[in-house]
Amino acid sequence: MRWWQLLAATFSKSLIRQGLLAHSLWLIALYALTDGLSASPLTWLSHFHQWDARWYASIALDGHGFMPQTYVFPPAHGWLLGRIVIVTRSIIPSLSIDTAFSVVAATIGLASFATGNILFVRLFTARFKIAPSRLWLATLANPVAYFALSGYSDATFYALTVVTVGLALQSSERRDLWRLPQPSRWTRPLLALALFTAPWFRLTGFSFASLALLKRREALATLLSLAAFLLYYDFQTERPLFFLSIQSVFGMPEGGFTHGALYSLRIFFDGLQKWPDVSTVGASGPLMGEFFLHWFNFGLLPLLAIAISIASIIWLIKRREFLFALVLGSILIISHNQAFWRSTVRYMMLAYPVAQAAWMASDWGSSRAGRAASALIAASLLAMQVLYARIFLSGGWAF
Predict the structure, then answer these.
(1) What are phi and psi of 35, to 5 degrees?
(2) Is 317 exposed, middle or buried (0-12, 13-18, 19+ CB in 10 A)?
(3) How do residues 207-248 score in pLDDT, each as one tens digit?
(4) CA–CA gap between residue 140 and residue 305 (Å, rounded)
(5) DSSP H/E element including 331
(6) 8 A C-beta contact, residue 246 and residue 71
(7) 239: left (phi over 0), alpha (psi -120 to 50) or beta
């Protein structure tokens, strides 16, 4: 099949139109609900230039390693943004470099987020017979979706992950169940390219080496990527593992998965014990708000993300979707291999729509009461998305 025939077979035009409409409505709603109407769209976008977006901007505008802290972040996302910023400013010279970065970062993020969601809806509509309208709601109710508008690499990695899963499924014996077309001569090379590229956008991409457990030869591309990655850092810093040691400048303590789990559990249970005392001292004051956010952000929320991810993995395994489950499970393990689960909620961007799809595909979830429950879940996640987007735009910590 030629590439345009493959594209037409994979994405129906109606699905793309639905996706563009759904994402446009979502963006308008997010803009209105985060006080975007009080300023210009460009000003609103510039407020997404927070936290790690500043480091990605440094990579994009000054180069990887201009600030040593940028070595914590793989360079590909910053390089991509930087090249497009240069092209954008050559076309519109009057655009300031900061504004150009904000516009380019949001454009790439939105394009990646929409691409990942369109493919997600395409896959799950075919495999589990879920109405596309319900799946659009599930993808756009992602509590960390607002990162698509920042300079973060989360939306790009999300799209790479869904594309990787789609290509791997297309070249597997599960292809017919997902109603994917016959693999072309480019399917496996494109899969290998995605596996090689992903770690250069997010270190979690090295988790795709787990496909070797399913005897997928394309997983060798991830090992080649690791070799190239270590050579690159050795050339840049004379220390191949410098990207790990530099984590200390961001206050990340040493430790692994169990340390992070124990830390979140300790915050969760300590918070439950201290809750009566704190509520007595200042039930409506700032102390209560700060206490609740700390407990929710670093105690309850990371544990909920783990529970949602594990439930999604179990659901996929029960349906013998071992490839999808393996990818999601390896992302879970690699992204949580740290002593402080500070940003892990957004690392599991794919788990939230999968979990909602699992509910929708169940007998109870497809009933009238189940649909009402699905709407309530989506509304709760959307409310969380808007709340944390407002916190993020004001410069507060939000995942």
Answers:
(1) 65, 25
(2) middle
(3) 999 999 999 999 999 999 999 999 999 999 989 988 888 877
(4) 17
(5) helix 322-335
(6) yes
(7) beta
